[in-house]
Amino acid sequence: MPKTAIIIGAGPAGLTAAFELVNRTDIKPIILEQTTDIGGISKTVNYKGNRMDIGGHRFFSKSDVIMNWWQSIMPLQGSVAKDEILKEIHYHKKSTQVKLTPNGPDPEVTDRVMLIRNRLSRIFYLRKFFDYPVTLNGRTISNLGLIRIFKIGVSYLRIKIFPVKHIETLEDFFISRFGKELYKTFFKDYTEKVWGVPCNEIAADWGAQRIKELSISRAILHAIRSFFKKDSTIEQKDTDTSLIEQFMYPKYGPGHMWETVATLIEEKGGEIIKNAKVIGLKIINNKVTEVEYVTGNEFKKHAIKGEYFFSTMAVKDLIAAIGDVVPDEIKEVSNGLQYRDFITVGLLLNKLKIKNETSKLTLFGLVPDNWIYIQERDVKVGRLQIFNNWSPYMVSDLSKVWIGMEYFCKEGDELWSMSDDEFTQFAIAELHKIDIIEKSDVIDSTIIRVPKTYPAYFGTYSQFDMIRDYTDRIENLYLIGRNGMHKYNNQDHSMLTAITSVNNIISGLKTKENIWNINTEEEYHEKK
To answer: How far apart are CA 353 and CA 313, in angstroms?
Structure first.
């Protein structure tokens, strides 16, 4: 009798687990996806032919397993359609059949292809552009002024001579790495804009996971190496992730990858049930035996049995679904877990007010950034994506500019509670205020709200090990992915948690320690 794996969530982790199961085992995966979309926060939203990447997803990993996995689904483009040629084309849907050329598939002929993109992100602060990560160069000195530069230098030397002895909070972590003055200039305000709480209330774990080994000395060393380096390749394993110069990107955004994977899963016998909200897990003798869910607006419960269970749903919701059998102390920790939610406002523009100040060749003089970190204190917008620069196929008319304004908020707060029209007008006014656009250049707009985008490292996070210990004792339950583990994983790390879980099932390994160690062990470090 074939076995069944029930997978909660059709994001990168859930889809990767299903793909691995249909290709490496005789276990049938059944995915229960709460929404009608595929890809989780890695989906692509199509608005009138203009595509939006929610949060921005660079396809780059230090793991060969993941790099090869992606390219097995979507091969790298050939040399036919480099940016010089892409400047001349306009978006139009073509055959989804992959046609390989001697150098790889041509994006102008096929859809199933990975583009090679140049990476550039900058900081917008004091109405000026700064390199990201911040580099001590002529532009930075000119923008900040000698007095600020002197204070930053003295502060950095002081922390190197008298290091922070006890690093408990994110503020401690930043100051120990960069000095108090640089922390206050480039880290404090933006980080608090993202998380909505002071840095001294966030656990240092966030910095240890997301920033890791990047330092001023490493950034300077990279700049020196880059000066003498002639060619850049997609293989950049010795480069800090925030310093990579190229990355892969599906022709129509991240959702294009995951929609393709979903199709392959179904072709191999897997099943995906959309609009299915999980409301209960039945546990007997430390094993999950079945999952209950409802579909759409129906009140009728559906039950589905299986031998293996993967959860990418928010930990808080998972514990609630397990119900009364959960000990009170575990419920208390679960109820105290916090999340940050996300709103993206898509704007179609005639042009941007800011101009290209770099040597990079761009279409119609557009700034070359993939995204821009908005450090300005007088606006709430956190980042600005320029979708033209992620992929020219994301935009229906390349003579227009298609951007995404990113806001970090909390369900029920002032930003989240605005109507769509109010929020859109508010967002447009903010970009106009900091001289990035003229209001008169806005042609069209849309708004996307995504709850529980970022698991937070405050609230009861310091007690999360209690939840981990409890769920790890449920033998056939595997917590994977960002929300599934309440761990700020990137896409590749989420995928690795799924692959490792399937490896454990195949090998009969009972421990789940190797799953939790992903993105904490040195081999998985992302230095940002």
So the answer is: 41
- Note the pLDDT of residue 508: 95
pLDDT at 131: 87
How buried is 274 (Cβ within 10 angstroms: 0-12 exposed, 13-18 middle, 19+ buried)?
middle
Find out whether 133 and 244 touch, Cβ atoms under 8 Å: no
Do the beta carbons of residue 247 and residue 235 sit within 8 Å? no
Alpha helices in 49-124 (DSSP H): 64-73, 83-86
Distance CA 407, CA 3 (A): 43
Element (H, E) at 20: helix 12-24
Taking the C-alpha atoms of residue 55 and residue 344, their distance in angstroms, rounded to an integer, is 8
Task: Provide CB contacts within 8 A for 34, sequence distance 6+.
Answer: 9, 275, 276, 277, 278, 313
Task: Tell me the pLDDT tens digit for each residue of 409-423.
Answer: 999 999 999 999 999
The number of residues making up the chain comes to 528
pLDDT tens profile 83-102: 443 443 333 333 333 343 45
Half-sphere exposure of 357 (CA within 13 A, CB side): 9
Torsion angles phi and psi, residue 321, rounded to 5: -70, -30
Q: Look-up: residue for tokens 């950049």? A: 236
Helix 464-472 to helix 328-335 angle (10° resolution) is 130
Adjacent-strand bridge partners of 385:
371, 404
Answer for the pair 523, 62: CB distance below 8 angstroms, yes or no: yes
